[in-house]
User: Which sequence fits this backbone?
């Protein structure tokens, strides 16, 4: 079979250089050359156009309103106040004013025009943050539990996440040449881990410390579940082959949860990670991008084959997995105190959008906090933010600033809303089929009322929406998963586990809002009346036969249940 076109582009790119410099300098268009739109992703940059004005501009025979989304990598979500202030300034000066916190603890800026791209990327780098490998066929932003200050174990895991992030960062100097005016090399550099054509597809890694599965470790290509014995981090259970993306109407594509491969000690995690990455590099499908993620390599060849390959590359065997248990997969809001006595405040940010809206001046508030904060910020895997590492004496000034900017009530949002996530979708995402970020808040208003009527207002139920089946808000592991099918129409998935350890299954297909409310209303009433003690909504749907549990990714697709 022929290699996919992106493979040709990578191979011809001279380690991700392509004709990017020429593209940036071309004054005749607001776009990059076609091949460079693929390569720019490896540099954290996506070419987009305003979907709201697309057809009108076409009618007027104008070029689409091109602009760029820039994604900045933030390993483990750790961001200093200086970095926050820098992002705030750049968003205001070059982007659409807002900052978008992503589902992978990273930043996105939208609406940067080509003329400003280079200056914007350079400005991000001024505060020691970069955009290299934030997208593309490489290891992306490495996630780690949000509150690394909680215990020594959390802090150690955060350090490991950073080490792994550094280890898997591409070696190419192209980024420095293109964006930072770095010196041009005469010879091409080696990519010791990736090789010249990088990976067959994107690759994602997360660390997690049970019992909170806040990084949704089973949705990752590669996961490290911290194993703590007698208060000490002894190593990790390694998970492989998680992923959410699929395409409507193509059953060969499906979401899959990571398989637990085995246990490795803390000294070995880098070697294991490299072996997993290089195995995928060598065996992943480079002919069909819809079949190129690690999850398909593993399902095609089997978990045992994969383990043997990883072990032979490592030169040692993994041990049997050790016991662990998860209780939830969201963020723990409000103040929490770490073992070292320092405080952390986790703030709900609806769908990760940081902007000033009416009296709730979130962007200004976080700017004011960053101006005085002596600790750091933590971006969470659920699009929220923590003001982290606060001394006893400084708590009240942070609280006063939250209040002054009208955001002290953010955490008083309903339990449902605090467990909700929506991907970006319209107007920027080129793949969106339906609204998501702009629509979910109003849908939640309606569902809140229904839950209150059923006496369920205090119950945590995870709800996630995406504008297409790619799964950027990880909807297939939400107890209520909503996936865009077309304008105003969604597939409804039920039966996922609260802690992200079981996929949901299609319950209703291609329904509008009225049909959705009609479908959920009786289920909420049944749940309120017939649930067992502490039973979660997703588990209830499975136990009572509302939906059949999904046992593994390959079992995800089946006819809609009536
Ligand atoms: Fe995603 C593509 C946004 C997390 C699966 N994702 C996109 C693009 C870049 C659209 C595109 O290719 O043109 C979206 C940009 C929209 C915009 O206008 O900003 C986009 N993805 C996002 C973010 C911003 C969603 C959010 O609301 O936070 C997240 C950025 C994460 C980051 O900081 O790196 C984001 N995307 C995810 C996740 C969740 C995760 O990683 O835990 C997934 C599911 C997990 C997975 O990868 O399987 C995800 N995004 C995809 C896919 C499907 C991949 C697949 O295997 O099929 C695509 C499309 C693709 O790659 O072809 C995609
Ligand atoms: Fe775009 Fe689809 Fe991802 Fe939403 S899930 S951001 S619509 S690619």
Assistant:
């Amino acid at each position: 079979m022929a290699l996919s076109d992106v493979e040709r582009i990578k191979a011809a790119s001279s380690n991700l250089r392509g004709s990017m410099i020429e593209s940036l300098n071309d004054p005749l268009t607001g776009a990059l050359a076609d091949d460079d739109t693929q390569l720019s992703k490896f540099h954290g940059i996506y070419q987009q156009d305003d979907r709201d004005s697309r057809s009108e501009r076409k009618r007027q025979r104008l070029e689409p309103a091109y602009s760029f989304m820039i994604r900045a990598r933030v390993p483990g979500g750790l961001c200093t106040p200086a970095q926050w202030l820098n992002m705030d300034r750049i968003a205001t000066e070059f982007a659409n004013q807002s900052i978008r916190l992503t589902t992978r603890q990273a930043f996105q800026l939208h609406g940067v025009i080509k003329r400003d791209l280079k200056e914007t990327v350079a400005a991000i780098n001024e505060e020691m943050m970069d955009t290299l490998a934030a997208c593309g066929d490489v290891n992306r932003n490495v996630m780690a539990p949000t509150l690394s200050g909680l215990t020594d174990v959390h802090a150690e895991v955060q350090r490991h996440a950073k080490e792994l992030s550094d280890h898997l960062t591409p070696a190419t100097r192209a980024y420095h040449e293109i964006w930072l005016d770095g010196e041009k090399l005469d010879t091409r550099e080696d990519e010791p881990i990736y090789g010249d054509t990088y990976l067959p597809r994107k690759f994602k890694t997360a660390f997690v410390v049970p019992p909170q599965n806040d990084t949704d470790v089973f949705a990752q290509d590669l996961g490290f579940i911290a194993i703590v014995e007698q208060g000490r981090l002894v190593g990790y259970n390694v998970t492989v082959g998680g992923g959410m993306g699929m395409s409507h109407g193509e059953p060969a594509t499906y979401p899959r949860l990571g398989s637990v491969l085995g246990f490795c000690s803390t000294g070995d995690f880098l070697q294991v990670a490299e072996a997993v990455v290089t195995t995928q590099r060598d065996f992943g499908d480079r002919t069909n991008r819809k079949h190129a993620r690690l999850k398909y390599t593993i399902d095609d060849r089997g978990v045992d084959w994969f383990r043997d390959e990883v072990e032979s590359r490592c030169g040692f065997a993994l041990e049997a997995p050790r016991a662990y248990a998860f209780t939830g997969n969201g963020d723990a809001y409000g103040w929490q105190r770490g073992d070292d006595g320092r405080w952390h405040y986790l703030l709900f940010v609806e769908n990760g959008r940081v902007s000033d809206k009416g009296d709730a001046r979130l962007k200004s508030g976080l700017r004011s906090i960053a101006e005085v904060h002596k600790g750091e910020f933590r971006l969470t895997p659920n699009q929220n933010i923590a003001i982290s590492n606060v001394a006893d004496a400084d708590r009240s000034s942070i609280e006063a600033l939250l209040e002054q900017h009208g955001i002290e009530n953010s955490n008083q949002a309903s339990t449902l809303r605090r467990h909700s996530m929506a991907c970006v979708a319209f107007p920027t995402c080129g793949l969106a089929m339906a609204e998501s970020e702009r629509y979910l808040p109003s849908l939640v208003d309606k569902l809140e009322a229904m839950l209150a009527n059923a006496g369920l207002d205090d119950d945590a139920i995870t709800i996630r929406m995406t504008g297409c089946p790619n799964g950027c808000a990880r909807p297939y592991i939400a107890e209520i998963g909503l996936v865009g099918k077309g304008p105003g129409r969604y597939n409804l998935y039920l039966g996922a586990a609260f802690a992200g350890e079981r996929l949901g299954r299609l319950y209703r297909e291609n329904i509008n809002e009225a049909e959705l409310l009609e479908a959920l209303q009786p289920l909420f009433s049944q749940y309120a009346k017939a649930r067992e003690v502490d039973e979660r909504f997703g588990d209830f749907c499975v136990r009572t036969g509302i939906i059949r549990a999904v046992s593994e990714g390959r079992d995800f697709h089946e006819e809609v249940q009536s």
